[in-house]
ABC transporter permease (Thermohalobaculum xanthum), 304 residues
Amino acid sequence: MNAMRRAWESDLSYSFRHSPITVLAAFMVIVLFAGAILAPLIAPYSPFDPATLNLMNGFTPPMTPNTFTGETFWLGTDDQGRDMFSAILYGMRISLFVGFAAVLLALVLGVVAGLVAGYAGGWVDTIIMRIADVQLTFPSILVAMLIFGIAKGLTPPDMRDQMAIWVLIVSIGLSDWVQFARVVRGATLVERNREYVQAARLIGRSRSAIMFRHVLPNVTSPVLVIATIGLALAIIAEATLSFLGVGAPPTQPSLGTLIRIGQGYLFSGEWWILFFPAVTLLVLALSVNLLGDWLREALNPRLR
């Protein structure tokens, strides 16, 4: 009980409660995340089961009875008669899974590289940071496309659709580790000269123990902020790659794939096939970004 009271009265909780935009963003994130997680229970149809699709329901406008079957769909249907509301819920699951997994991969690679570079220094620091600098000269989306193309080329043709999601995660993760590495390196350069690190050296602690048990806990605040903002960027990157046709396969469409499908019918009058997935992606990315901005300000008193 006392722990809950202290959490409620903390500076972080106070900052959150007195920021209406942050509260609204958190509410939208909870709603969208819950919709994606509970999609099998919420979705009225199974959009990716061919046995449940009826081509006669194709191009049904939102909240309008279909001319042939008489069925009504909240957000309409696409060219295959797939319920757009159900497709968006399932598409969000893939987008969020790719986003979380890619950020986790980038976080692990970047934190390890930043700790090693900042603590070891010397030629190790030089090599890691020059690799990061070279990668920063290219847009991350181009790096992700390059990695995706190479990885897909190495994948056997009969397994490409099954491995497409994992290849997408690796592509985005390898293109986003640099930000984590640079921030962690900078924080490690400061922490390695602190008294507690000097004390750990004097008692004979190994380098790995000092880095991961002593330095790492003191550099997690900026990493948490970058990870939150990076989640929104990873979701957008996944949508961009899928929109360009090099992301999630049509058999497992994400929000980006749904937007790509809808773009082909925008000028023929079926606007809802593009509009609703695009709005969902916009609200999801914006809400996560707003939470990341609030977290950055709340954890850094100099920005208040």
